[in-house]
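question for whoever is on the cluster today: can someone run the full assembly for these? two chains, 306 residues total. i dont have access anymore since they changed the login thing
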Amino acid sequence: MRILIVDDSAMMRAMIKRVITLTDVPVESILEASNGREGLELLQKHDVQLLLTDINMPVMTGAEMLREIAGHERWRGMSRVIISTDGSPERREEAADLDVRCYLEKPFSPEVLRDVLNELTDNELTETD
Amino acid sequence: MSSTNSRTTNLPKLTDPEAASAMFEAVRAVAEQSFFAVAEPTDDRSFGVAAVQVSRWLVATVGFEQGPLSGTVSCTLPEHLANGLFDAFTGRDPGDPAPATLLVHDLIGEFSNMVCGAWLTRVEGGRTFTLSHPSVEPAMKPAAAGDMRLVTAIDDLPVAVDLRLSAIKRLNGVPQA
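^ ran it for u. tokens below:
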């Protein structure tokens, strides 16, 4: 599985990467971007199966990036997870409209992220079987 | 946590004690969940006594907009607390080479980002908001208090969280200005 992490904090990206290594997620490679524009460019260059993105970022927000890829056949099977400080119902409703599978609110413990990723992977495998 | 457990100073407009209580809850949630640290309420006197023993501070500021509410949240904390939080967040062994200043600043910026977001979610949970990329600056002493100041202790070290408002029309449904 190729994974893309989009967050403007290098330390948050490093933490997410570290947690991924503790999960059952079969990792082929992990790509990183510091804003939605960079994320979009990587999505256009690589086949990504799991996208983990922040919302509030400079240049292009995570929501803007998700709106750009919503409805495109190329990314139809890609799992989308939002990891954001914005836990508002309004933002969650918007995420649901953008095919987001899971919404994780910061702050969170590494264990919570690990469990979310394991559950996501289990469900994906079940759906694929 | 009741509102009496957190202390605020210089609070000319934010009279709703829930806003101050929510700020402490936000700090505590961020400290405990993401940094494995303990945040406790303190008072101005205890903060002042602890603060004079600190010679190097970091001030991490993030701007926010949420409907009619906009401003900044600044977290001011001792540099050695920032290094401790870095170790806790990354699992760095204290015996390892010291982390780059840029990475410590990045993480403390993320700390302020999470505090601001968690506070906004608590005070106006229904509304979405935007946050600016955090700025982090070293300081020799804490800046003057903002429109609302929360003083707290994280791992027994003094921390100030200042809210500065640039526009506000209402908070929790109550007109403020």
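summary bc i know u wont read the tokens: Strands of chain B lie at 7-9, 39-41, 57-66, 69-78, 130-131, 135-139, 148-154, 157-167, 170-171, 174-175. The two ends of chain B are 28 Å apart (CA to CA).
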